[in-house]
DNA sequence: AAAAAATGCAACCGCCGACCG
DNA sequence: ACGGTCGGCGGTTGCATTTTT
């Protein structure tokens, strides 16, 4: 941060005017004031922005509003399959470092990704009655959820375009086939790899409960409402219904090379 | 149709490290 | 060296909306 940023000339501004600091939802007028100010003066200097834009907000509040809602090129709407895949993979690498993960998802904010994780992923862990940080859950993500996402991306590609089939999904899937020694005709979307996984799927981990890629918000809601079922904590402890190690699936690690992640990112651009 | 429950997301909070005088 | 302030980050909360009962 440069010296200019810190040249406020009124260090006690907040403490003197705390009583008039606004909180809660932003109004259209406030949004306009902040947008106009940032358009002219650029990002940063948030306390100065709050003052000179005539906003009775803290600098932190202004920064958050700008970064999470007002700034241009923000991506709105449902998290796509590719984005879900990236989030799952990057979270497995970096944990709850949301801002770092967000850097790999153009137009998405750390807040959005964090909310996605909490509402979808943690809820699934809860349904499965296992800790979101447990080995069981992480394995199920890596070896069940993520391959199914890849499969769905690939299926969507196949349906969307026959002219340019070589996308990240197929690229990743070719690795998948190689490592799992799957039939080469797996490029046929009518023969989903997920069938090979289904026997170890717990009932509530169906596509319907995992997938968020629907255009209809009501579908999105409904997809969230798969009931809790057979994958109870006893099963988890016994390891009888899910054991990727014994199934020899640990080669999966090789699937997540930098190239495939780069492909995913490019597709999101 | 109405009440209750669940959901999703915007916004706030508290902590931390960087920077400055 | 030290205290004050800021921006950035992850965690949490509040509430409007949606869905279920």
TrEMBL record:
PROSITE patterns: HTH_MYB, MYB_LIKE. Residues 18-70, 71-121 form the Myb-like domain. CDD domains: SANT (cd00167). GO terms for molecular function: DNA-binding transcription factor activity; sequence-specific DNA binding. It is found in: Nucleus. One of its GO terms (cellular component) is nucleus. Signal peptide: none annotated. Its main location: nucleus. Residues 18-74, 75-125 form the HTH myb-type domain. This is Uncharacterized protein.
